[in-house]
Amino acid sequence: MSLFPEIIRIMAYVVGVLAFVGLNAAFLVWLERKVAGHIQRRIGPKEVGPFGVLQPVADGIKLISKQLVVPAQADSLLFRLSPVLTMTLAVTVFVVLPFGPSLVARDINIGLLLIFAFLSINVLALFIGGWGSNNKYAVVSAIRAVSQNVAYEVPMLIIVITMVMITSSMNLNVIVSQQGNLLQWHIFPWNGSILSPLAFLIFFVCTLAETNRAPFDLGEAESELVAGFHTEYSGMGFGLFFLGEYASVFVGCALASILFLGGWQCPLGIMPGVHWMLIKTYLLVFVVIWVRWTFPRTTLYGLLNLSWKVLVPFSLVILLVTAAQLKMPWPF
Amino acid sequence: MSDLAVDPSCETFVLNMGPQHPATHGALRIKLVLDGEYIVEAEPVLGYIHRMHEKMGENRSYLAFMPNTGRLDYLSALSYNHGYVSVVERAAGIAIPERAEYLRVITVELNRISSHLLWLGAFVLDLGGFTPLLYTMDDREQLLDLLESVTGSRLTYCYFRFGGLYNDVDDNFGPGARAFIKRMRRRLPMYHKLISKNVIFRQRLEGIAPVSAEMCRKYGATGPVARGSGIAYDVRKHEPYSVYPEFNFDIPVYEQGDSMARYLIRMDEIEQSLRIVEQGLDKLPPGPIMAVKVPKIIKPPKGDYYMAVEAARGSFGIRLVSDGSATPYRLKLRSPCLSNLSLFGEAARGLLLPDAVAFFGSLDLVIPDIDR
Amino acid sequence: MVTANAHLPIVHFSSLDKLLNLGRANSLWPLTFGLACCAIEMMATGVARFDLDRFGMGVFRPAPKQSDVMIVAGTISKKMAPGIRTLYEQMPHPKWVIALGNCAIAGGPFVFAGQYGIVEGADKIMPVDIYIPGCPPRPEALVEGLLLLEEKLTGSRRWPRVNPE
Amino acid sequence: MKKLAISQALAALASARVLECDHASRGFHLSVAVAPLELPAAAKILDQQGFFIEAITGVDWLGEQAAPGPTVADQAEHQPPLPSEDSFEVVYDFNHFAKLCRVALRTRMPRSRPEIPTISAIYPGANWHERETHDFFGIIFSDHPDLSPLLLPEDADFHPLCKDYKP
Q: Which chain D positions have a beta carbon within 8 Å of C114's beta carbon?
């Protein structure tokens, strides 16, 4: 492998991933506001461009041209680092996401591990942002975000381990290629583990919590903490948090669709490709938005109780049952 | 929980909620001493929207003060109108025609529903659910259209006059109100399904911030807050005024005293108000809407007079001290919200921050009414 | 009368400025900040029937750092005035202020000889771009006010003006 | 009956002057005037009988002494005898949750020495009402835990509802 094409390849993927993250955020902003509008008996963005599709563009222009304020008492380095870090981590994860049979930036063996490694650092970015703002609301919010993320990573990773046991691979492309058609999807109990529908549910709930989405949006609980960890961020600092949040929502839903719903595979086994991946992921994203505009927010204790007292035991049961099932084909 | 909060070895910090904060519904500041997220001490700081209503009462004529009453508790402005016209009518000895009394009751109850609807939306918004606000506001808009056709304004009504009303209702009012009652009766089960039965919602309200009946008495809390604590006190039944004795309605009472009870009280009150409006429309007598002999300039005899009415948030009282001239000598406005808020400091001790926000929302406060 | 070219800069990046202003005009995020009665009408404007989100203005931000428009909705008491000034200063540039209702314009009904408690108008403590009269103004008036602000930014009006006959 | 019980209990106080009023025309049943020093005792009696506090109203009777003809206040209602100079009046409104009985408890103090004992130890709800009365009239409630301005700005040193207030 010569060096030169490799650099071109990297460049192409960097540009591609960044463009996708930007477009994805724009699309999700529009989708979220439109869906929210229709859930709430109103129209949502309509005047800016046809069907309001230019709304995210206007928001972006506005945010970019807005003054960046670094509070005098804030830790300038941490304050500036945090949004960049959030964004970088979210973008990095896209490197191993397979969008199609050959449409993946880096087809590495430990893709799954890499994603969770980076997603775990994400919470640190929020924390230094909240801490660096030197704002009490932001600090409380940052502490909430950390305890929440730690609590929900445990059941999530246990589920992922279960899935790795079933698929015996950490390569996302391999996992997808095992699920050739609807009947082979890992969400169904006859493929691998009898408890996999439950596993999917737990994984999805954990995704909501990990990405700070309602009903687990304690970090940015408006009625309690004003705007949470990004209270002090203006302009594009806030914009980057937004991009990062939408990118991780996408990643979370993409992972769910890769692990359980066959990723880029077609349900009927014909014409697999990137469109299936996008359809499945955005359907899941739609559910995330739907949940957000339906439920009130939990409290921190309700959230931690749900994780440690319900999700962790259940996911451990899933792990054990799956292990037993894999080792002893009978009586399953 | 509370022993954790008073542990002297814990490090605490002070958090200023407000004056601009989404949870305080206006310009109110709450000084919180927090231990982690537990509240050690909560002290509301008032006065950010003090608008000198009582001073204004002393330097303008009785009629000219009328619009002020619509701006005290702007969510149930008609109740305040009612209280004010009633105390002046009591002082000056003005009797008002029956049709006017009935229309007063009907419009006041419609206003109470609109107030409770707005509260419901804002309350769920405090708990992080955005969508119910849009639903309740949608219903409220229907109601506002109705009230606007009668009173001429959407929010800060000034509809009653000494001796009667500003104008009669038109032919569309009756059918419109009946249509609204029908609509609301359909919508209430929907709200119960969407909100009351939601697991997260119940988990956040049940058993949170119990207020005892004794505490209500010591602080003078009235309205849904007292009724949520098992006190069956409603001025409409307790000290009947206007034509309320003619109506058949219940006073919902819950014993638990927690945020859930205060929520359920208001939901039940919407139903009761619908009943009152329906009966009022059935019984509405024909006739004049203004008493014939109302002096142009009201000069009540010397002395002091008190009048309490049941506003949406509790008992609103007016003490009018008259020196026999055309302006009140002293006009004291007893705000239900002030008394209801005064127990916040004691009841919020030991709560978690989000629970305190829920508790605050369940008190249903209108800040300009507190500050006056 | 408000005109778009009121403050012409010395160096004029014409097209870029136009683009930026177009972006800003279509994404005016108000600050969640209500003082009194007018705040309820502000809420009513945000929700289903009037739906400010149609114009991209529905994103009410609770933090001043992330908002573009401050809608002063209600009476400004002397105790509150320093707080409002702080909020205004915390908002990053470019920022605009709308005085909603008579109280925010000039003290409204609460002005009388010998008043001791209120600031008579938001423009006593900060620059105001748009004044919307009413007590409280109807939601339609607030929508019109925001459209006027857009017009001030872009120089052109979104919808044809309706002349009241 | 509540009215009888409370009026007898209050009449036992040395300085109390209990007057029954027509509820329909005045809005309260009992008008009870006491000397400032007996205020806590009266409040304690009301507390024991299960009354709740509704409001505290201050009234400034400036110029009452100088007024020609009959004085503004109904003299009969204001025994013990009025101070011989212009006075402040404070009216405490009490009510009962179960049995309707509104009691207006009145007390008068001279304008030059506006000091009366607090009842906030008996009724914690009275705390804010007393602070508010202090804001508006400058009446000092002795032994009150915190008489800082409630509705006026923190540094306010004026009392706007006094009749001689000039901004």
A: 165-167
